[in-house]
Write a structure and sequence with these properties.
Elements: H1 3-16, H2 24-56, H3 59-68, H4 75-84, H5 93-102, H6 107-119, H7 122-132, H8 134-157, H9 166-174, H10 189-224, H11 231-234, H12 241-249, H13 256-268, H14 273-285, H15 288-294, H16 300-324
Helix pairs in contact: 1-2, 2-7, 2-10, 4-6, 4-8, 5-6, 6-8, 7-8, 7-13, 8-16, 10-13, 12-14, 12-16, 13-14, 14-16
């Protein structure tokens, strides 16, 4: 399917630019051109398809659906599934957190949505298909939804409402339930297409810079870092490789579009896929910038519990990935 991109990259790098195929620069540049074209094409297709789905489930509708329906324990799974079709990153945590809790959604269910949304969305899916294939993508999506569901259930069982900040408690105390009407519900599909298209362009404009920077970093790593450099520290034989990768990721911050090209190179350099994905999940779902954002709505104790539960689930997921992939 992507053979033409391979031929185009070969022609541009080795013929037009006349760079030696075995040189570090040649390998790095070839990686950058090939992956940029392939990933952008896949991103456009997947974001457009998910935009169609997302047009039927806007964020207000998700909030109202979860607050109005009794789902008999399945609300955590439903919240995680909604997280898959909504393109939010961890930087959206504060307004989403307030909106969901204010809408009457239990805290654990809100966590399920917020955990899954930055990890598994149309951008992550499009990148994963392009970089690792359909089978790995399916396993990743299922594990991401499972991670959000289990983490939300655990956090709900801990009854952590007392650890919300006083600011949030005041917001909740004075809030009134709002009834939202959706004009989209009765809008024919063809009339929604311009809105969907504008959202696709908006998302692409937001993620393309991260994609290009991520691929550029991946290209440099691919071309200049020797084989086995990472493997000696994070090999499959090292039982602590997964938690080390997760902890190392916490000081960093990126979204899926920025970190996944780097993950691909880590795998190419010998790091097990599960360890590399645990690193990615740590960067996207657990980061110091996210903790600073959440400080507005959570006490440090709640942030610590949240990071601890999600981090533990990420580590377990990393080990499972290493076993099955």
């Amino acid at each position: 399917m992507f053979d033409w991109i391979e031929h185009l990259a070969n022609w541009l790098v080795y013929n037009v630019l006349d760079i030696n195929e075995s040189s570090h620069l040649g390998q790095a540049l070839h990686f950058f051109i090939y992956d940029t074209i392939k990933i952008l094409i896949l991103l456009f297709i997947v974001i457009f398809l998910m935009g169609i789905v997302n047009s039927f489930f806007p964020i207000e509708k998700v909030r109202n659906y979860l607050s109005r329906h009794k789902l008999y324990g399945l609300e955590f799974l439903v919240a995680s599934l909604f997280g898959v079709v909504t393109p939010f990153c961890s930087c959206s945590s504060v307004p989403l957190f307030i909106g969901f809790v204010r809408g009457g959604i239990p805290l654990g269910v809100t966590f399920s949505f917020l955990i899954t949304s930055p990890l598994v969305n149309e951008v992550a899916i499009g990148l994963f298909i392009g970089l690792f294939g359909l089978k790995t993508t399916l396993v990743y999506v299922i594990s991401g939804v499972f991670l959000g569901t289990i983490s939300g259930i655990i956090l709900q069982k801990l009854r952590l409402e007392a650890y919300l900040t006083s600011w949030v408690k005041d917001v909740l105390k004075n809030a009134q339930q709002e009834q939202t009407k959706f004009e989209q519900e009765h809008t024919v599909f063809l009339k929604r297409l311009p809105i969907i298209w504008s959202e696709v362009i908006k998302i692409l404009k937001g993620v393309v810079p991260y994609v290009i920077v991520g691929i550029a970093i991946g290209g440099l790593m691919h071309g200049y870092i020797p084989e086995g450099f990472f493997e000696q520290y994070m090999s499959k034989e090292n039982l602590f490789a997964v938690p080390i990768a997760t902890i190392v990721a916490i000081p960093m911050y990126s979204n899926a579009s920025g970190v996944l090209p780097v993950v691909q190179v880590l795998v190419d350099k010998g790091i097990p896929l599960g360890t590399a994905i645990a690193f990615m999940m740590g960067v996207v779902g657990l980061s110091l910038p996210e903790a600073m954002l959440l400080k507005k709505v959570m006490t440090f104790k709640l942030i610590g519990i949240f990071f601890g539960v999600v981090g533990t689930c990420i580590i377990i997921s990393g080990y499972i990935f290493n076993i099955i992939l």
